[in-house]
Design brief:
single chain; mainly alpha
Length: 167
């Protein structure tokens, strides 16, 4: 009489464990999506500030053209082209800011200060996103997750190459 009850109890505990793993994995996937949405918003804002800087009298025409092109590419890049576009924008901003700090007006300095603060936020957002992705990837490597296909059809989250660049 105790054996069927024990088997039922073990099955219930195992079902609860699988449910727990599926719920945890779902939360981790949600965390990845949320962190990416936040990072994407900050990157879009950086591209907008880059366009404002390009439209000001801060840079020479060649730098303005380079910065405008890089900003538009970053704003409109597909998922596959995102890393290259963001890296190009980072490079264009770095080239512009190397020699441009000395002759900036007050409105341009405000834009540069906003860009600097935004860059710090982007670094934090990248850190949060890469942490979320690595946590999700670690949980998805578990045998129970793979064996019972608890991830469903959710794609494996990835980090992008531009996240390792120095902004």
């Amino acid at each position: 009489m105790k054996t069927p009850l024990l088997v039922i109890l073990i099955i219930l505990i195992f079902a609860w464990y699988l449910s727990f793993l599926a719920t945890r994995l779902d939360r981790l996937h949600h965390r990845v999506e949320t962190s990416w949405a936040n990072l994407d918003g900050l990157l879009q804002r950086r591209a907008a500030i880059a366009l404002e800087i390009a439209r000001s009298d801060f840079a020479d025409p060649a730098s303005t053209l380079l910065l405008t092109s890089a900003a538009y590419q970053a704003r409109e890049a597909t998922v596959q082209d995102r890393s290259g576009a963001e890296s190009a924008l980072s490079g264009a901003l770095a080239l512009l800011l190397i020699d441009g700090q000395t002759h900036a007006s007050s409105s341009e300095r405000t834009l540069l200060d906003e860009l600097s603060a935004l860059t710090a936020k982007i670094r934090i957002a990248i850190s949060i996103h890469t942490d979320s992705v690595s946590s999700t990837q670690a949980v998805r490597k578990r045998v129970a997750i793979r064996l019972f296909r608890l991830a469903g059809t959710a794609p494996l989250p990835v980090t992008y190459e531009f996240e390792t660049d120095a902004l």
